[in-house]
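Side project, low priority. Logging it here so it doesn't get lost.
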Amino acid sequence: MLDYLWVALGLVLIVVGLVGCIVPILPGPPLSFLALLFLQFSRWGDFSTTFLLIMAFVALGVTVLDYIVPVWGTKKTGGTKAGIWGATIGLLLGIFFFPPLGIILGPLVGAITGELIGGATPGRSVRAGLGSLLGFLMGTGLKLIASGLMTFYFFKELF
């Protein structure tokens, strides 16, 4: 009976983990990883320790990258330190004051504002802001890949 509870909780976490890749408030890959752990506790789970450690590293790495990539995108599109600081501050403000939309728009608006304060032209400021948005979208893609992979292994092991 307990096996079915572990699987049910794992199924819920798999779904919420996938949703969390799109909805910035939910930590998608860590929730997907927890689903693998819950399945491991059931009679159907037979993951190796190495596999679980790799998936834990992937979940942690993608989650950390999700906060770094928008700043990288700003820098790659010509943003200066002012734009990078703006994107970082915008991300933090967006997380706490305007979730979930603030996590998307915060770095964009922050990078544009930082560049404008730093003396950049409006065109350059917008380009840096769009780089931040592109970085956010790349981070979302990475999360979807990681959680999708964990979802695949969850169901592969279950069936």
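Brief comment: The chain has six helices and no strands.
Revisit when time allows.
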